[in-house]
Write a structure and sequence with these properties.
By secondary structure, this protein is of the alpha/beta class. The chain has two domains: 6-119, 3-Layer(aba) Sandwich (Rossmann fold), CATH 3.40.50; 153-354, Hypothetical protein af1432 (Orthogonal Bundle). The protein is built from 17 helices and five strands. The chain has a five-stranded parallel β-sheet with strand order 2-1-3-4-5. Helix 1 (14-24) links the parallel strand 1 (6-11) and strand 2. The longest helix has 45 residues, at 105-149. The protein is elongated. The chain starts with 5 loop residues before the first strand and ends in a 5-residue tail after the last helix. Residues 189-312 form the HD domain. It holds the Pfam family HD_5. Keywords: Hydrolase. This is Phosphohydrolase. Residues 167-359 form the HD-GYP domain.
Length: 359
Amino acid sequence: MLQDAFVLILSDRPGPAAGLARGIERVVACTCLDFGAGLPPKRPLAVVVDLDTPRTATAAVTEALAVRLRERPVPTLLLTGASRDDAGAADSFGAQAVLPAATPRETILAKVLEMIDGAARAAAARTRRLNQRAEVATGIVTDLFFQASADRRLRDAEADRGTETVLAAVSEAGIRDWLDVVWRHDAQVYQHTLSVAGYAAAFGTEIGLPEADHRRLTKAALLHDIGKSRIPASILNKPNGLSAEETALMRSHAILGADLLRAQGDVEPEIIDVVRHHHEKLDGSGYPDGLAGAQISDLVRLVAICDIFSALTERRAYRAPLSVTEAVRIMTDMRGQLDRTLLNAFAPVIARSACQIWP
């Protein structure tokens, strides 16, 4: 349960901090944050703040930690000193517990261990919810592809349920943990669908999309490859290069998917647009319609970035997954093909996908 977990201490009293850290390390790893360093990339299990002087209370790393704790709360213990005004400090750090710094170390340690236990239980509950949501989303995607392959009417309510499930999972657990779960799926096309939907959910949060637009983006990503339900598995999973005829058939999935959804009669035109045009490029070199520039909607541009990054970093039948660095280099080199502003905005999502950074 505590694998890779750690407690973070920010203190300007090295002696007491070191003693507290030794006690904590009997249970879990502990890091004492240096005032000249940045915040750790990973989210700690709990935080102890012990600042006794105004200088350290206003240091850049202190202010950064306070902001981060307000954005993405972590169980926090604030130790109050006698030499500075602590009014408002608990609110500033979002502290759930406050003790005088002069409190005996054993009492402080007991409080920290109590916080660790609560945080570990909460993390275990989050993991259970994540696995349950991934199972639900996988079942929905599997059913949607089956219905589409059998030329049956898709249940739009199920697509909506899948969308809400992905949004809830990524919002609570983050994109890295979502990918870790969905990448266990054996069927690559379902794995890719759930990955792209996860990236879209994270991207929408990153750029602050309104709720309705955020939901539409995630739903479009969930359905973007529905046309692959009509492509033979022998082509989808071919371990070497496709022939010209096979490539043309593979590329037809965009039109097949859009036609399938249009025939439903109740799918938003913006989502059908994404399904048909997510392989278009701004310079007109994409398919199936060779759209360029302003002909390509913002929603399509967003999903295209998620789709390409996901595809590059996934294992495919014909190649191993590329590293994040390689994928970023390839996408950066796609000059004139991807929306540069949106690609830059996607960078924090890339960072979080590579490591469960905090937040």
